[in-house]
């Protein structure tokens, strides 16, 4: 039997080393469940994605999924958060390198290009999950609140990015138009319904951002 050494406070050294390992394992489990949840919600929607399906596909117990995320609604919210920023790191979009690059770009054209690219990348990851959110919001008040909160966050982000591009606070009418034009539903209409490529959509979005921000208000 291995000997366990104790420190002066009475705690075992093995417990201290086990704690980081457990945190790492918990983080890996969370990441695995989230990867599955993003895919299943996007493919099957809200009603078609059961917690037991997520658990089985991720190779964990249903109890583990509930213990990690609390509810199906919170699991979808976590999946949406991942879709917006691209990972599960607790770093807001405004603190991300892609966001900061917009403000650091030298010309207005460069800033518009970077903003359009960021919006396109977010929409590409998000738009099918947003369908699941709208489905769920019709039957789950928590999801309705989550949807309203995400809409508010996106509107604020749109205003902030427009300010970075222009070097001044945008007019509310400009924010209104940008909020609509950069939304994932418009992306879905062009890509899924009209058959546009991502490249074509991004080029269109660059033109729309430039036109909206340069038009007199």
UniProtKB/TrEMBL annotation:
Annotated segments matching region Disordered: 1-21
PROSITE patterns: HTH_TETR_2
Domain HTH tetR-type: 27-87
Pfam families listed in its UniProt record: TetR_N
DNA-binding region: 50-69
Keywords from the UniProt entry: DNA-binding, Transcription, Transcription regulation
Matching InterPro entries: Homeodomain-like_sf, HTH-type_TetR-like_transc_reg, HTH_TetR
Protein name: Helix-turn-helix domain-containing protein
């Amino acid at each position: 039997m291995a000997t366990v050494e104790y420190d002066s406070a009475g705690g075992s050294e093995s417990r201290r080393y086990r704690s980081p390992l457990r945190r790492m394992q918990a983080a890996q489990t969370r990441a695995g469940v989230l990867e599955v949840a993003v895919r299943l919600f996007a493919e099957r929607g809200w009603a078609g994605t059961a917690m037991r399906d997520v658990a089985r596909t991720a190779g964990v117990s249903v109890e583990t999924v509930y213990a990690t995320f609390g509810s199906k609604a919170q699991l979808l919210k976590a999946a949406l958060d991942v879709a917006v920023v691209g990972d599960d790191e607790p770093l807001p979009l405004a603190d991300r390198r892609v966001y900061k690059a917009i403000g650091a770009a030298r010309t207005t054209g460069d800033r518009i290009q970077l903003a359009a690219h960021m919006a396109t990348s977010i929409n590409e990851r998000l738009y099918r999950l947003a369908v699941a959110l709208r489905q769920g919001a019709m039957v789950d008040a928590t999801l309705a609140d989550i949807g309203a909160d995400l809409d508010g966050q996106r509107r604020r982000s749109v205003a902030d990015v427009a300010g970075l591009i222009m070097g001044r606070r945008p007019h509310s009418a400009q924010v209104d138009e940008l909020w609509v034009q950069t939304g994932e539903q418009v992306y879905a209409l062009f890509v899924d319904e009209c058959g546009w490529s991502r490249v074509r959509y991004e080029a269109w979005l660059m033109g729309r951002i430039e036109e909206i921000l340069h038009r007199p208000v």
